[in-house]
Design a protein that fits this description.
Layout: H1 5-8, H2 11-30, E1 39-43, H3 49-57, E2 62-65, H4 68-77, E3 84-87, H5 96-100, E4 105-109, H6 112-121, E5 126-130, H7 147-156, E6 160-165, H8 172-188, E7 193-195, H9 202-207, E8 212-215, H10 217-220
């Protein structure tokens, strides 16, 4: 017997997330975005599975995780819900099989060897290529000049390349330019998907043509201390 999201989520959490979701949608609309065309991914890292249920009860389907252990646990604990899981964290080759067992989209592909392993383990998998346009130290993502070759390789290996993903600079002017650059690159490569924009900069991303925003704090509030989950 399955459990509906409404019956298993904390009513106070559902009310709070629903109110926050309404505010996120207002922000998207105020930036000129088409609410019917922009996917909202609820980034649940460090939050408990109860918050996944609250987000589902508020009407969200796409959930995002950065940690493999959290993805496994929350997918298992919410298996009764019709959710679509996006893995957003940097990929480690020895954990890709675990990710593919639970994720519907892998949104942080940056290297040939990741493409090859994904194609071998799960043919036809949906992926995004992550692009680093900030050149900041420790920032995950492929260099812009590597992206075309990565997309070509992924297509040749039979993967479903949905689009490009980026995390922008905290500087507003730089972020707008980076989002515009990602949108141009996606268009040049014949990709519709532009996963760009988070809680603090979603308006700038929407203005530049984002098709997907990834929000956590804007929906759930401040994050707890991340747990060390492998």
């Amino acid at each position: 017997m399955t459990t509906s999201p409404a019956s298993s989520a904390n009513p106070d959490d559902v009310q709070r997330v629903a109110a926050n979701l309404a505010d996120v949608r207002r922000r998207i609309a105020s930036a000129g975005g088409d609410l019917a065309a922009i996917c909202i991914v609820a980034v649940t890292k460090t939050f408990e599975a109860s918050m996944v249920r609250a987000a589902a009860s508020a009407g969200l389907v796409a959930m995002g995780e950065n940690y493999v252990g959290e993805l496994e646990r929350k997918d298992n604990e919410t298996a009764d819900l019709a959710l679509r899981w996006h893995f957003l964290g940097a990929l480690q080759s020895n954990k890709i099989a675990r990710i593919l067992a639970h994720a519907d989209v892998v949104s942080a592909v940056t290297r040939d060897k990741e493409i090859d392993k994904i194609a071998t383990l799960r043919p036809g998998m949906t992926i995004d290529v992550q692009v680093d346009l900030t050149r900041a130290p420790q920032r995950n993502g492929a260099d812009v000049h590597e992206v075309e070759a990565l997309v070509t390789r992924a297509r040749d290996r039979g993967l479903d390349v949905r689009g490009l993903m980026t995390v922008a600079s905290p500087d507003p002017v730089a972020a707008s330019a980076q989002f515009a650059a990602l949108a141009r690159l996606a268009s040049e490569l014949g990709l519709r998907g532009r996963s760009m924009g988070m809680s603090e900069d979603l308006e700038r991303a929407v203005e530049q043509g984002s098709t997907e925003i990834r929000v956590g704090r804007a929906l759930f509030g401040p994050r707890t201390t991340p747990r060390a989950l492998a």
